[in-house]
Design brief:
Elements (H helix, E strand, L loop, with lengths): L8 E6 L4 E6 L3 E2 L8 H8 L7 E3 L7 E9 L10 E7 L5 H52 L15 H5 L3 H58 L5 H31 L9 E3 L1 H9 L3 H6 L3 E5 L7 E3 L1 H18 L5 E8 L3 E8 L21 H4 L7 H11 L3 E6 L5 E8 L2
Parallel strand pairs: 8-10
Antiparallel strand pairs: 1-2, 1-6, 2-3, 4-5, 5-6, 7-9, 10-11, 11-13, 12-13
Helix pairs in contact: 2-4, 4-5, 5-10, 8-10
Length: about 425
């Protein structure tokens, strides 16, 4: 019964109503409690089925339904020595509130424990989402710091696919880190290429300087040592060779100076409006005497109404002089050089075409590269591959471009394009 109804109580009392022993589902009843016997005696005399309420040994102010049975000696006619009672408390008894409070406490504890465990799992998951990609970034940074500048770094170690798909700060940092390392690697490779070209260029320039300088010194020393004993025609011939070598050195030093000056990012341009057709008419007159000695025909072509361009005339003249010098050097006697200015692609294109041997196809795409020596067969001695680099740089400073091609009829054609703006 106690298992079925936790509110019930069972207790044993003597003939005076003193509780000798008692028990409920929650706790034992002390032996100092006492109840009135009158309800017990009335219950024992009442007909079967009648209910009687009696004292509750735990709650003195409450009457509860009970059942009782007497303890008597072997002869039932003697007075009972005690009674056994079963007490059935109503639902609103304090014990119910105690049971409810106990259940609530247990439930609250279970809920609190579950909440703590769920919170711990959530914190662990959040920390994993943050610390895992950060650890990958740390490992990638360590890999980059240990990588040689010329090494082939595997970019797959820099970010995980999950990081690439993330839209939060972790994903953005991961993608930015990968882009930064990729850019650094490209810049390092570019620096290596420039440095390799620079070393090769220094070696080539040193050779180009040494050859004419050695020849110049040798011929001057010969003239000095032989003095008056040297024949007049030999003296003239030696002086001519020395002069050509000195001019060779002058052209080379001028190219070096021009390229160094043009490479400056803050080089000021002295621009003014110019008509390129009339500009070519004046320009070609400088080379008329040289062309005439070799029977080379020079022609200037341009259409009427050619628009004006804002250019630095001195720089453009320097670039055209380099192209004209090449054209004269590699146009055979009796050949032709054509200078043309014409509108093209919202700008004006100036072309210098010769009837020489053209440019080798293997180096055609590299003739304007800085420190590139493949074009020396066109530029000839004394320029160390710098003349065409100067030409391209002048075009770039004006917002234009330079190009080269071979003519179908033979020879090479160089184009300088300047935008109208």
């Amino acid at each position: 019964m106690l298992l079925h109804d936790p509110r019930s109580a069972i207790y044993l009392m003597d003939s005076e109503g003193r509780i000798r022993a008692g028990y409920t589902k929650e706790r034992s009843i002390g032996s100092k409690a006492a109840v009135a016997l009158e309800p017990v005696e009335r219950l024992l005399k009442a007909p079967v089925g009648q209910t009687v309420f009696g004292d509750d040994p735990e709650f003195s102010a409450r009457q509860s339904l009970f059942a009782a049975a007497p303890f008597a000696p072997s002869s039932t006619r003697q007075k009972p020595v005690g009674y056994i009672c079963v007490l059935m408390r109503p639902p609103d008894a304090d014990v119910k509130r105690g049971l409810i409070a106990s259940y609530a406490n247990r439930s609250a504890f279970a809920v609190a424990l579950g909440g703590v465990m769920a919170g711990a799992l959530l914190v662990f998951a959040v920390l994993s989402l943050i610390t895992r990609p950060l650890k990958r970034l740390t490992d990638a940074a360590d890999a980059v710091s240990m990588q040689n500048a010329d090494g082939a770094l595997n970019l797959n170690v820099l970010a995980h696919d999950d990081d690439e798909l993330r839209t939060d700060e972790i994903g953005r940092v991961s993608r930015a880190f990968r882009a930064m390392v990729r850019r650094l690697r490209e810049q390092a490779q570019q620096v290596q290429r420039v440095d390799a070209n620079r070393r090769q260029w220094v070696a080539n320039v040193s050779h180009d300087l040494r050859t004419p300088l050695t020849s110049l010194i040798g011929h001057l020393e010969t003239i000095q040592m032989r003095g008056e004993r040297m024949r007049a025609d030999d003296r003239v011939r030696f002086l001519g060779i020395a002069m050509r070598n000195a001019q060779h050195l002058d052209r080379l030093s001028s190219s070096l100076f021009d390229l160094a000056r043009l490479e400056s990012d803050d080089l000021p341009l002295d621009k003014s409006p110019a008509h390129l057709g009339e500009f070519l008419d004046d320009f070609v007159a400088r080379f008329a005497a040289v062309a005439e000695t070799r029977s080379i025909v020079m022609t200037v072509e341009y259409p009427p109404g050619l628009p004006l361009l804002s250019i630095d005339a001195a720089l453009v003249e320097r670039a055209l002089a380099n192209l004209m010098d090449n054209a004269l050097r590699y146009t055979p006697t009796g050949g032709a050089i054509i200078l043309n200015a014409a509108p093209r692609d919202h700008g004006v294109a100036v072309t210098v075409a010769d009837s020489g041997k053209g440019i080798d196809a293997a180096v055609l795409g590299h003739v304007f590269e800085r420190f590139f020596q493949g074009s020396s067969h066109r530029e000839g001695g004394g320029h160390a591959g710098l003349g065409l680099a100067v030409v391209e740089r002048v075009a770039q400073l004006h917002g234009g471009r330079a190009s080269a091609a071979n003519r179908v009829s033979g020879g090479a054609v160089f184009v300088l394009w300047f935008p109208l703006s």
